[in-house]
Amino acid sequence: MSLSKQQTVAVSSAAAFVLAAGALGWFLYDAYSGRMEQEEELAQQTAAFLRFNEAPVFPSLKTISEAKTNQATLATWLDSARAYAARGDRKMPEETPPIFKQRLAATVRKMRMLPGAAAGKIAAPAFQFGFDAYLGEGGVLPDVKDVPRLSSQLDAIKYIVAVFARAGVLEVKELRRVEPPPPDETPAKGRKPKAKKKADDAAGEQKASSLEFGLVFTARPDAIVKVMNAFSSDTRFVIVKNFAFKAVEDDIVSRMDADAAAKAAAANASGSGRRRRRAAAEAAASEEPADAAKGGVIADPESGSPLQVEFTLEVWDFGTGTIQGAAPSSAAAKNAKADAGGQPSPAAAKKVQAAAQKRVTPPGKEAGK
Question: Full-prediction pTM beyond 0.85?
Answer without folding.
Answer: no
